[in-house]
Amino acid sequence: MMGDVEPAAMLPADWETGLFLGRIQTADGPSPIIVRDGEVLDMAHVAPTVSALVEAGDFSGAGGTSLGRFDPAVHDLLSPVDLQCIKACGVTFAVSALERVIEERARGDWAAAAAIRSRLEESMGGSIRAVVPGSPEAAALKAALIEDGLWSQYLEVAIGPDAEVFTKAPVLATVGAGAEIGIRSDSGWNNPEPEIALLVDSRGNTVGAMLGNDVNLRDFEGRSALLLGKAKDNNASCALGPLVRIFDSSFTIDDVRQAEVGLRIEGEDGYVLEGRSNMAEISRDPLELVKQTLSEHQYPDGFVLFLGTLFAPVQDRDEPGRGFTHKVGDVVAIDSTRLGRLENRVVTSADAAPWTVGIGAFYRNLAERGLLA
Predict the structure, then answer these.
(1) What is the predicted pLDDT for the residue at 158?
(2) Domain presence at residue 67
(3) Which of 17, 19, 106, 221 has minimal CB crowding within 10 Å?
(4) Distance CA 186, CA 70 (A)
(5) Which residues of the chain have pLDDT under 70?
(6) Where is the Fumarylacetoacetase-like C-terminal domain (predicted)?
(7) Are 357 and 221 in contact (CB under 8 A)?
(8) Which among 84, 77, 95, 88 is positioned nearest to 31, based on CA atoms?
(9) DSSP state of 321
(10) Under 8 Å between Cβ of 242 and 77
């Protein structure tokens, strides 16, 4: 539970007129909910899963059981999705593209990063920001960078025709607002990745958006891109929430395209890092990323798609030149005006609450509650 947090501190200022989808933990088990006009409606007896509710396409709340006004101290929020695949796009901003190249050239060694960062930014920072991925201009830039010995697999997905799309976490493995978020205990260079994530149904319709933290281990991926799975998919390493904001007349994909995403990290050592990024700087349109995810692949229960992050914190936290890395106890808050605030505390993945409710246990619970008839 979120303690004494007020709804307005977690949800957007207009939350009482917005339309939201999510999950809560009840005494009997997880239930999908609709939050409409400030009221929480338990939808478990209408559709036992968030996936089923999304596939039905009815977000009116009809047939739901009222649980009163939304209150984070009473309604125990879980990650707002369940059976959806968790997909993610990487290197969708010029800054993050440069940082991935830096990781690669530094072989995951933070001590070598500063000098490489300065040289690469001077050589190609402006040119990467200026081109449209997959365009003739991007192809010409690629040829020039190859000739200069500056080409990278990360630049291929940054400005080439094909976006990077990978699986971030198993079904049911994501954590929600207020939960602990995990960093591998053997990682010494890592950071949060504050992002907007889209919720897409099995037909390819983008139905809403939420905030997410796609945690990144810079040392692991920097040593080898083949370690991406180990860098990205660990216990409690993916947070989503607080709720999915459903697209309607007051909130559309254009709000996502123009959204600002804020990040604040507060450490137990007194360290504070803040920043904001604008989705208008993304190199590929969000719906183009959805289209590429669906290319020659089906998702019968729908999927979540992280859109990528502009943040790659480089501010020194300890000794000069080391840059940023998480410490246990960091509180990470991600916010956006129309989507609310997602806050999680950092622990090691080894110490985070173990993931025990997989698909089998999930469906046994639904069956015991009589929700599968």
Answers:
(1) 79
(2) yes
(3) 17
(4) 39
(5) 1-5, 94-98, 100, 103, 107-108, 110-111, 114-130, 145, 148, 150
(6) 164-347
(7) no
(8) 77
(9) T
(10) yes
Task: Say if residue 244 is in the same domain as residue 297.
Answer: yes
Give the pLDDT score at 358. Answer: 97
Last residue of a domain, one of 81, 104, 137: 81
Burial 89-117 (b: 16+ CB within 10 A, else e): bbbbbbbbbbbbbbbbbbebbbebbbebb
Is the N-terminal amide bond of 48 cis, ω within 30° of 0? no
Q: Are residues 194 and 138 part of one domain?
A: no
Taking the C-alpha atoms of residue 6 and residue 70, their distance in angstroms, rounded to an integer, is: 9
Angle at 66 between CA 7 and CA 2, to 5 degrees: 30
User: For residue 1, what pLDDT is reported?
Assistant: 47
Residue 116 shares a structural domain with residue 32: no
Residue 341, SS3?
Answer: strand
Amino acid at 2: M
Alpha carbon distances (Å) from 123 to 109, 110, 118, 151: 21, 20, 9, 12
Residues 183 and 319 placed together within one structural domain of the fold? yes
Position 180 in a domain: yes
> Is 105 a domain residue?
yes
User: Hey, how many other C-beta atoms are within 10 angstroms of the C-beta on 305?
Assistant: 29
Same domain, 20 and 52: yes
Residues 29 and 118 in one domain: no
* Residue 146: domain span: 95-159
**What does the pLDDT read at residue 347?**
98
Helices (H), 150-237: 153-159, 218-223, 228-232
Asked if residue 293 and residue 265 are part of one domain, the reply reads yes
Q: Sort strands 65-69 and 39-42 into parallel, antiparallel or unpaired.
A: antiparallel
The confidence score (pLDDT) of residue 30 equals: 98
Alpha carbon 237 to chain centroid, angstroms: 10
The tokens 């990360």 sit on which residue? Answer: 154
Structure tokens, 340: 């609310």
